[in-house]
Every structure is written in structure tokens, then in C-alpha cells.
Amino acid sequence: MEYKFKEIEKRWQDYWEENKTFRTEDDYTRPKFYVLDMFPYPSGSGLHVGHPEGYTATDIVARYKRMKGFNVLHPMGWDAFGLPAEQYAIETGTHPSVTTQNNCENFRRQIKALGLGYDWDREVNTTDRGYFKWTQWIFIRLYNTWFDEKQQKGRPIEELEIPEHISKEGKESVQNFIADHRLAYYDDAQVWWCPHCRIVCSNEEVLNDGTHEKCGSLVERKNLKQWMLRIPHYAERLLEGLDGLDWPEGVKDMQRNWIGRSTGAEVEFQIEGSGQSLRIFTTRPDTLFGATYMVVSPEHLLLEALTTDDQKDQVDKYVAQARLKSELDRSDLSREKTGVFTGSYAINPVNNQQIPIWVADYVLMGYGTGAIMAVPGHDTRDFEFATAFSLPILCIMNPHGADEELRTLVLAGKACWTEDGTYVNSVHAGTGLDINNLSKEQGIARTIEWLQERGLGKSAINYKIRDWLFSRQRYWGEPFPVIHWEDGEITLLEDADLPLELPALERYEPGSHGESPLANATSWLIVNDSKGRKGRRETNTMPQWAGSCWYYLRYIDPDNDQEPFSKIKENYWMPVDLYVGGAEHAVLHLLYSRFWHKVLYDLGIVSTDEPYNKLFNQGMILAFAYESKTGAKVPSDLVEERDGSYVHTETGEPLNQIVAKMSKSLKNVVNPDDVVAIYGADSLRLYEMFLGPLDAVKPWVENGVKGVYNFLNRVYKFFADPTHYFTGDEDPEVLKSLHGTIKKVGGDIEALHFNTSISQMMIFTNLCIKKGKVTPETAEAFIRVLGPFAPHLSEEIWQQLKNQSSIAEASWPIYDESFLQEDTHEYPVMINGKLRFKIVLLINLESEEIRKQVLQHETAVKWTGGADPKRFIHVPSKIINIVV
RNA sequence: GCGGAUGUGGCGGAAUUGGUAGACGCGCUAGACUUAGGAUCUAGUUCCUUCGGGAGUGUGGGUUCGAGUCCCUUCAUCCGCACCA
Fold this sequence. Notes:
By secondary structure, this protein is of the alpha+beta class.
């Protein structure tokens, strides 16, 4: 009765493949459940143990839901455009599609070896012409859509009303006006350029220290013509949509933070001695009385006009330095404030005070208006700057809750107070504004009202999110269905001309100055229209995010060549009920695809406003690593264990065991293929789930696999052996445990608590082994519960129990609550809050009778001395507590 | 600095509404079976103990008959964002 997992797993994987056990039909009469994994980039190194974690979790849910009668969609595919294949092509000349195909095959083989029940007839690949045709089709939709602010809705570009003064100016103005409203537009953009990869990076791909996240080189600023998507138009919708989603709070917050909404006001400051004004954004218009100077960013358009002749040299020098700094010293963390006086003054509208205008790089051009009013009394950055350059500091807020020493300093303008307080110095007879004695909310409201009455400002909302840079100077991506004509006109291909495929190339190197390799494909590149006009195809390609923005929709109808997906099918399957993947996509992929989805929704192409109903992030799987006392990392193959501590094999130096990310340099990477070879796929699946809560970060412990392997062995040896069966009435204890297990495991799967459901199955198995014999009915029910977790082993035993069809098609057993009810309960009895003894009592006993029986117990008498206790607490079916 | 999360045995981790802290597994200890075992099975395993008990869920306090769970305080670790006006 040996557990031959290799044989068993091979047999059932072949069976599933031949019988298409996991094929999903579009049966609209049944309730649907769409469970989705974040599809992988098929890298050359294959799966790591992190992949099967999420995949196993969704597989268990999918199998369980199927057994519960749902029509389940559980597909897999490949996010296959991307740099590594292109890099490999540059090095070897191998076409990326060849590399991609090989990698996909390897991934598919590995995934099938884990017994994951995907419907392979629905496999998608973002690099297939039948797939990216529709990615291009969606791009055309984005191009032909504008966002109606009033309706908060994307609308077809034909419905955009052209204002009269624009149409009067002629065709070109009209075209420009339309272009300014399209969700996709082509324009000069200052972009991040990675000189190493020779590629443009999106803001999201540049790390804090100014390096490219992919290669670690410092990026540079560069001006290039680029495709951009106006995602900020959807900021409000993307923000609102989050509220109704069953997502981890952390992910929602990250998205909110990324969108970065803040409310406040825009205020115009007149520049003294010029007709111009300087506009600023502030979240605290109520602190206008405390604005003692202004600052513009070094890139501000008005800077030149503001700079007086006297200050020109200094300002020019500063701006040049700032530019250099933004390219080289971004990692410089010493945040000392620098800046230069422009020579100009503005008038503070609330008190007609003359205040100096400075230029400083702590003001960012990319946020708000690129200019600020500085309130050094109540803003730490402004305070720092004012102190450094001896600018006046005015307190307008008497601090709440500050000690007297601090209060005195704040009132004297010698310390900064950023919390709430009572307004002081916030009235001016000349301008008529008085907010003294108002609350913060009233102060803000009153000031905005005052500004609006005088046309000096208005309430405003600002977002951090910026237009999405949507093109890359790369070969291995979706080509844009775009032609740039010699007269400057831009046209998009007709739907009927899609897909636009990539040309064959000899060489895949990008140009050194931002030219895509596609620029070398002359015969592909140049086009002529019927009138002989010459045009050039767009040579940029779309970023890798494009394909993953909508893949969940293609699974619904993967072979459709008439439309991206059928409307009826989409209506049935959407939204995704459960989406599982890593937290690294918390912002980018999830925000981008929500954006696309909302546009498609506005255009009536999809039926839901949001794509993913419930999102779950699996925690990363780490591994043990070793470091010396100095913190130097030591590869695992140079470590040995002696008497419970770890030492360096060569030097004998004592080492500490730490937990770290798996990495080649630490030699602690676990390959799922190796685990499958030693313990089998069911053991790997079970261990990945038993390791800990799905969302927790947890280390891989080799010995733990043995634990679950042992469990499966015990299951096999017990349930696959007919001598362990008897016919007749099942032991009540087994029956109770079985029904408890069915209930517990079902509930745990719904809650994604797989670790505790495995514990429960272990408890049940241990009981059965202890009892020695069970009925076949008990075995059948238990094996169905185990099925989603260890499908190969379960199929094997299921078949031995004389079942003809796959266990995947069996129904989930129904538990009977009556087996779970007890007529007696073993009460823990606590005396003064400490457990002293236990007593078995009938559940339906009168409370007087319970009191009597408990107090008669010898241990109770010992503590009470026979006297009546002060209190006697009886919680039915829970606990008894006696206070003496 | 801001936001999110997490602190429980030697280790991974359990503990619906406050109600037996340490389930389940690893490891360890002892025993059985074995030529042998890093196989399998059985028993034990939070710590201290004068064997009556006592202490115990990062720290300190509070509410309660009763707190890992609720409230306040504080420390540590991880993740994300960060000169965002």
C-alpha cells in the first residue's frame, strides 16, 4: 500500500487532459464564478515556488466552487511581450516569438505538473495576433473617446461639442481642440530615458533614487514625441470605485495615494509692477494671512518674466544647478533648502502686503501650479526655508494643546505649528476679510467665498496622478495602429485593417537616440495613401501593461475573431469574482486596467464599472539565508549546522539564520520541479497552503513539506486499503468529526483560510486511523473534501471507491448540523478567573441545578470552603466562573 | 514625516461574537519494530516549581466575573508613499 505519487499524478493529469475535465461551457442557466490569477510573464527561468502559491489557492477555490454547482471560469495565459525576450534577441538574433513560445511551453508543462485545473482551451497569449489585434482595437477606442467632465463619463469623440470661437478659427484649431480632448494623444513629452536600456520609462518605472527599476541605471530627462493616455480625467471615478470593492485596505490606500486627491483653492497673486499674476494651489487658503513670501519652481513658465535684471545671474545659475541636480543628485537625501530671490514682489490679496517671490527646487513643477504661497509659521518646509534665508515668519494660529514654552515661540514666529489652533492676525479692514474666531472649516470656507466674490480665486481639487506615458522604443510590443502623414496629419487604421503585425527584422537593437528598432523596417514603415500622400507608421510600441489591461475579458471568448468578446458572454461572466496575485501590482497593473475598463464601460463595451470584485494578495515566500556577525550574506551552500547553530563551512565563523528573499546569489531558491520530484505535486500544493495564511509573508522550510507528505501517505495508506472499511452504522465520534470537517473546510475555502482547513483534515484523518475502520460513505465524503487540495490522490481513492467519473465533477458533501450538536458539554470551571477543573454537564440543565452540581465538586469546595460564592457566572455551552 | 500591516513555545502558525491560550505541523525526548535507518508506529513536549501551585500572547496601564481579542500608552519589525503646498 505504498503511496506512489509519481504514477498516480501522471495517470490523473493524463486523464484530465484527455477528458478535458476542466473545460468551461458558457452555460447561462447556472450561477457563474470567475476566479482569476495574475497571468505570468513567461521568463526563461521558469516557475519559482511563489507562482504555485496563488495558483494553488485559486485552483482550490475553483474546484470547490465547481463542486458546489457553480459554472467556474478559471483560465491561464501569458503576458508575453517584454524586455527579456527582446534582450535575448539582440544577443542571439533569435526572434522573440521563438523564445516566448519556448518559455510558454515550459511554463505550461510546469503548471500542468502541479495538477492545476485550468481550461486550456481558453489560454491567451498577449503576443498572438488574434489577441493584440484587440489590444490595438481598444487603443483606437481610447483615441476616439473624450471625457465629459459634467457627466463624469467617457464619450465618443464625435459627440464632442466644438466651441464657436474654436470653429471660427478654422480646421486646424478644430483638429487641435479635438486632439486636446482625446484620451490618447501624441505630444512632446519630457520623459525619463534609461541610457542603459535605451528606453523611455514611465514615472512608475523610475525608483525614488532616480534609477530604472529594471536595470538600476540612472535615468535622464529627455524630450520625445510620445503617446500619452489621459488617466487623470478618470481620477475621480477611479477613486470612487474603490469604495465598493472587496480589496485589501492597503491596496486601496496605495491607489488613493497614487491618485493623490487634495482639495483646497487656487489663488491669484498680482505681481507688483506688472499686469501679470501668479497662480498657486493651496489646501489651506485660511492661512493666506500668514503667507509672507512665494516660491516658484525652477521650471516655472513665468520665472523669466519674474526675474529682475539684478537677480538674473543668480537665478540663471540656480536654475542650471537645479536641472543638473534633478538628473544626478536625486538620491542625495540631505534635504537642505536652497533657493534664490527673483527680485519681484507679489501682493498678498488678503492684506495687500508686499511679499517677495523666490525660486526654489523644493517646489515641484509637476504638482499644482508649480508655485506656492509660503506660510512659514505653519508649514515645516516653508519654515525651514524662511529660517535659512531670513524671511519673515508670521504666526496666524494660536496653538491648541501646546505647552506654554512652545506657544510663546509659535506666537513670536520662532517655531512652526502645523496642527489646529485659533486664528490670530487674520483680519484686515482694507480688504474686508475676517476669519478670526472661526473654526478651521469655517475659515477655509469663508476665505474661498471671499476670494470667489472678488475673482481672486476659487475652490479647486488637485491630483498627483499624471498622464500615462504609453509608448516604448522597443520591438517586442504591440505596434500602434497609427500612421503619421507627411503633412502632419495623424490617422489610425480602420478596424478592418487590424491587426497591424510586427515586421521581421534582422537586428533588434534600439536606436541610441530614442528611435525604436521598428524604424529600420523600411518596407513596413513607409505607406502611401490612395492620393499618393506619404506616411510613416508609428515606430514606438505599447508598454507591457497594455496586454494585461484587458486579458481577463479575452478569456471569456478567446477565439472570437469578430469582436474582442461576445457581449452576451461578457455580461454573464463579468465581473471577476476573485482575483489573486502579488502585491507588486497594487498600483500599476490594477490602476491601469481599472482605467481601461471604465472607458470600455462608458462606451457600452463592458457591462460593469469595475473589473475585479474581490482582490487578494498572496504573501511572498521567503527562504532562510545566513549572514555573519558583520551582516555579510553567506550563500547557503557554504553553511553548515553544528549543535543547533550555524557556521561557515570554510572559516568556521558563526552565522545567524535570517529570512530573506530567494535569490541566486544566496543560493536559497527553491524550484517547484525539485519538490514535485521528491514529494509529488499534491505535497507541494498542500505545503504551499499549509505554510501559513495566504496573505502572510512566510519562509519556506524544507522539513515542512515532509509534514504534509506524511499526511498524504497516511491518507493513502488508510483510505486506499479496503481492510479499513466496514458496512454498518458509523461511529458517532467519526460522524461528528466528519461533519465538522465538511463545515470547517467549506467555510475556510470561502474565506481563503487554507492552512486551517488542512489542519482540520489532519485531525479527521488521525481520528480515522485511531478508530481503525470507517464506512465507505465516510471515506467518500472525506475524499471529496480533500479533492480540491490534493486532486491526484483524491481521484485515485475516489476511483477505488468505485466511482466512474472524475472527483472534480462530484458534488461537495453536505454537512448535517444535527451531528454537530452535543447534549452534554465539558464545562471548564474557573475560580477567580483561573481554570481549576472541568465538569461534564447536560446542556439543557436548569441553571440552578448546574450551580448546585458545580459547587458540590470537591475542587470547588476546596476553594469556596463550602460557603456561597460572591458570584456564579454560567455561560451556556461555554464556561463557568466562580468568584469567591 | 504620512499611510497600511504585523508582534503568541525552539520553529511555521491556531484561537467567529471577550469565555479552557499554544490546535495542526516541524523539531526535540523516550519507547516499540528493525542488521540498520534520516522509514514506520506509540507516548511526551510553553516556562518555572518545594508538585500545593505560580508565571505567560512585544512594553506599561485601563475596562471586565473573565482580555491574545476591547480602550489608552509605548517599543520593534515589514511593506508602500514621500519636499504633494
